[in-house]
Amino acid sequence: MSEQAHEEREAENGQVPQQQQDQQLDFLSRENIHVELTSAPLCITKVMNRIRSPKAGALVLFAGTTRDTFDDKPVAHLSYTAYTSRALATMMSISEEILLKHGLLAICIVHRVGEVPIGEESVLIAVAGKHRREAWHGGEEALERVKERVEVWKMERFVDGEGVWRSNRDGGVGVAVDGGGDEDGGDGGVKGGVEVKVD
Amino acid sequence: MTAEDENSLISPEFFGQYSGVADDIHSTSRQVLSMAENNPTPTGTFKILYFAYASSHTKKSEELLPAPMQLSELFETLDKKYPRMKEKVLGSCMVTVNLEYVDMDTSEEKELKAGDEVGIIPPVSSG
């Protein structure tokens, strides 16, 4: 993200427009855990700073970024939608589970929603551990749980205009989004799992 | 473990565990939790939310449906309203009622009441 955008977000603590206030409400936070959904560009520094601890010997960060192709098909843009309240609860539940299981010191999970330009971060997961081993393993497992469970959906719009709702369940193609809006909706060509066409 | 047990995580008691955080964060948690209450639905209806390809199929992200309705009648009702929705969408979706996942295969009856918030949840694709 640009420094400017980051600074603008940081400056929101004072008087902020209503829309930005709403944006600020899309998080849950407690000691050692912070989970958030935001339409703003993600800030790696801010996420890392949330998990810092003098007790930590390792901070592990995963940054998921948006690719410009799917199966060699050029992607024009991607957007994410979320069931915000449900997704935050799931992110919190995953965080608690991972923190406990791997004995971590802190965890932060932030997912971006709305349109995400190609090459930018769509998800950041950061964990702090006393030692590298639990931090690596905990971070990896947190990512897998997020991809399995968090109620966020990715829509890829291809350069040819077709849109596809992705599914993580099979790592496969997802569900295409029709351009036409016919009643029949097309068959969506299920390949290796779920494919749904999107209007 | 029932779906209810698993989702007891999002009960008010769960948020009550939050400690060492500012008051505004407590209120944020409550606000997230009570989103449905803050947007009251007209009497005699429940709100249904459609996500991803469920919303593509219905061409809307949410609507109000008449309450009460038996949960077991939900998919048939939607299928009548939106032809082929069961086959094309609902077969691969999960359902939440007031943020808790419910079992659509159970024979146990559950009633959708006025003011409830129902979510149609396709397979997720975060990350």
TrEMBL record, chain A:
Predominant localisation class: cytoplasm
Enzyme class: transferase
Key word Transferase present: yes
GO biological process assignments: Mo-molybdopterin cofactor biosynthetic process
Compartments it resides in: Cytoplasm
UniProt cross-references to Pfam families, sorted A to Z: MoaE
Catalytic activity: 2 [molybdopterin-synthase sulfur-carrier protein]-C-terminal-Gly-aminoethanethioate + cyclic pyranopterin phosphate + H2O = molybdopterin + 2 [molybdopterin-synthase sulfur-carrier protein]-C-terminal Gly-Gly + 2 H(+)
Sequence positions that bind substrate: H131, R132, K147, K154, M155, E156
Gene3D superfamilies in alphabetical order: Molybdopterin biosynthesis MoaE subunit
SUPFAM superfamilies: Molybdopterin synthase subunit MoaE
Family: Belongs to the MoaE family. MOCS2B subfamily.
Oligomeric form and interacting partners: Heterotetramer; composed of 2 small (MOCS2A) and 2 large (MOCS2B) subunits.
Descriptive protein name: Molybdopterin synthase catalytic subunit
Organism: Tuber borchii
TrEMBL record, chain B:
The organism's place on the tree of life at top rank: Eukaryota
Functional pathway: Cofactor biosynthesis; molybdopterin biosynthesis
Gene Ontology biological-process entries: Mo-molybdopterin cofactor biosynthetic process
Primary location class: cytoplasm
Key words, A-Z: Cytoplasm, Molybdenum cofactor biosynthesis, Nucleotide-binding, Phosphoprotein
Modified residues (Glycyl adenylate): G127
Classification via SUPFAM superfamilies: MoaD/ThiS
Localization of this protein: Cytoplasm
Name of a matching Pfam family: ThiS
GO CC aspect terms: molybdopterin adenylyltransferase complex; molybdopterin synthase complex
InterPro entries: Beta-grasp_dom_sf, MOCS2A, MOCS2A_euk, Mopterin_synth/thiamin_S_b, ThiS/MoaD-like
Posttranslational mods: C-terminal thiocarboxylation occurs in 2 steps, it is first acyl-adenylated (-COAMP) via the hesA/moeB/thiF part of UBA4, then thiocarboxylated (-COSH) via the rhodanese domain of UBA4.
GO terms for MF: molybdopterin synthase activity; nucleotide binding
1-thioglycine PTM positions: G127
Family according to the record: Belongs to the MoaD family. MOCS2A subfamily.
Known partners and oligomeric status: Heterotetramer; composed of 2 small (MOCS2A) and 2 large (MOCS2B) subunits.
Physiological role: Acts as a sulfur carrier required for molybdopterin biosynthesis. Component of the molybdopterin synthase complex that catalyzes the conversion of precursor Z into molybdopterin by mediating the incorporation of 2 sulfur atoms into precursor Z to generate a dithiolene group. In the complex, serves as sulfur donor by being thiocarboxylated (-COSH) at its C-terminus by UBA4. After interaction with MOCS2B, the sulfur is then transferred to precursor Z to form molybdopterin.
HAMAP family for the chain: MOCS2A
Protein name: Molybdopterin synthase sulfur carrier subunit
Organism: Tuber borchii
